[in-house]
């Protein structure tokens, strides 16, 4: 028997569940698409395009809507001889300065033999090159800046949308499409950048369970063979997606994970609720491990402190009551404890990762407000991701019974006498 054999019982086209798949239609986004389409209409009329700013949480269809509309725009524009449309997509992840954006744009517009170095020029020189290149090419240029919030200085976000108004361009028409999932970015833009970059703002709200269900049904019809999914599978993936963040990407990933788990089982020919539950657990574990591994050692120490307090039924807890435990753990790990404010920053970071939830409380008539923290995640998952800090600090009594791996307990001393 061959080592690899094609298994096609579950999936008809698994690639339809991948990130790079472009659905033929976007489900449940009619209003946003209509506004977006209206903002792009001047291109077909041969007019100067609007600058558009799309914002909304992650996985709500901003990029998908952009790709969908721009591919139609490109196709429809090709019907008109007097329209020369050029689309440039730039993901700003990793491009933090206006300088980097400008050099990337110049290189996108030039052929391979004529690229410029990404360092060494004054910024104004790169801008000059950009305007010259755009004017030489002429036509209508739509530049998509996805994840535009990664750009830390706003020079280019002012210069690009205003290039014609500032007489930097005469022949070329230019329109910017900025996309962001960072709400504070939009709020923090200076008024002059906001007024030019955000000529037409379109908000993409999070999806609810019924939106997600329709999106998943559309995708599943392409990805899976008929009658492979148990009836409960799609509603369950949609319900989890809506509960988490209304993020279509997460729901599609969960459906794919469930399909993969079903496929791995030799005798299974259908995807069931149990595969969704197991898939969710696996994805959650991956997400937590990734989140925790990105934290500094102090972040780990704060999380470990909170975990032990949680297991001793002492949560929700104020940061000042986390502090003695954290200080003790830091000392045991041979680190100087951070000042209270820095320690609180770590609590806030844990909350941002979804590991910890925060409740604001009032101290009565005269007092101010304060925050209480509680652990919001499966204990076993957190423990498995905190391996290293357990080695550095030792095993607290409260977690003994949760440690499945006895070797760890043998090697470490109990901490009970310290707290
Ligand atoms: N309305 C929809 N209909 C069909 N598929 C959708 C819809 N909305 C989102 N998707 C799919 O969900 C996934 C995530 O969407 P997309 O990449 O557009 O999100 P986004 O809002 O750009 O997120 P981010 O801010 O993280 O880039 C993609 O696979 C996309 O095809």
UniProtKB/TrEMBL annotation:
ATP binds at residues 60-64, 207, 219. GO terms for molecular function: ATP binding; ATP hydrolysis activity. Residues 303-386 form the Cdc6 C-terminal domain. The keyword ATP-binding applies. Residues 48-203 form the AAA+ ATPase domain. The keyword Transferase does not apply. GO terms for biological process: DNA replication. SMART domains: AAA (SM00382), Cdc6_C (SM01074). Pfam families: AAA_22 (PF13401), Cdc6_lid (PF22703), WHD_Cdc6 (PF09079). Coiled coil: none annotated. Keywords: ATP-binding, DNA replication, Nucleotide-binding. Involved in regulation of DNA replication. PANTHER family: CELL DIVISION CONTROL PROTEIN 6-RELATED, ORC1-TYPE DNA REPLICATION PROTEIN. Belongs to the CDC6/cdc18 family. This is ORC1-type DNA replication protein. It comes from Natrinema versiforme JCM 10478. The lineage of its organism: Archaea, Methanobacteriati, Methanobacteriota, Stenosarchaea group, Halobacteria.
